[in-house]
What does this fold into?
Amino acid sequence: MDQYCVVGNPIEHSLSPFIQNHFAKSTNQNLMYSKHLVELDKFKETIQDLFSNGFLGCNVTVPFKEQAYAMCHKLTERAKQAQSVNTLKYEDGIIFGDNTDGAGLVKDLTVGKNIVLKDKTILVIGAGGAAKGIIGSLLMQGPKKVIITNRTISKAVSLANHFQHLGNVCYAEIDCIAHGVDVVINATSSSLKGELPPLDTSLINESVVVYDLMYSAKPTVFVQFASELGAVAYDGLGMLIEQAAESFNFWRRIEPSTDGLIETIRSSLN
Ligand code: ATR
It folds into this structure.
């Protein structure tokens, strides 16, 4: 049976084994997907061991995505843009790296939620690894503008510079952003701590779509905050599922159906 896994630290609560084994079953692929806790200073050797022991690929999660990027022999264009890798594939002694996070977000927004991104103004809050993983894919949708803001503004400046060749992207201090934002994406890790990034409430209303990359059993603080202001607000569970489907396709060259998975997983979270 072909072997795949997810590696990270922590890894205990990863939903990837459930999702990937579901895809394998629904597409009749003879594979087994497990999870592996990797010691913080042993990423590279662990991956090399897995591949020498017959594993064909893995998903990579926090905090190893940059280390995964650094050890690849070949990278997809979107992995190069993100400068991080969440999917590794081992074929004929070559390590291939992809980053499916941005494509997963875009698929969930545009197909899962029927939201048009073309010609829209998108505000991305946060300028860390998560933001870097999605901005290239957002720009490929042809939005009017992507505005990046961050608590530490210098990081938003460098991210805007990094993606400039892909479309209309700029940075702004959070209190300088005027009305007229169509989509707000929270790419900070603030929801993990139950905190809100500083955001002018006047930016959010019933015509704004809000998306938090984080997810949890209960609505995240950001989703709750936006919903109370009348916005349509989503958490990142759909993105998690869609990025997993993109990874599955990278390994097996089959697009699995994600129909109904959000509901199945959401009910198991409660
Ligand atoms: P990740 O890989 O999840 O993006 P990261 O690279 O450490 O993690 O980046 C975390 C992001 O969340 C950063 O943009 C961080 O802002 P700073 O660059 O100013 O540190 C942002 N962040 C985390 N907690 C936050 C909070 N309570 N309010 C606002 N921004 C926060």
Q: What stands out?
A: The chain has a mean pLDDT of 96. The chain has two domains: 2-99+238-269, 102-235.
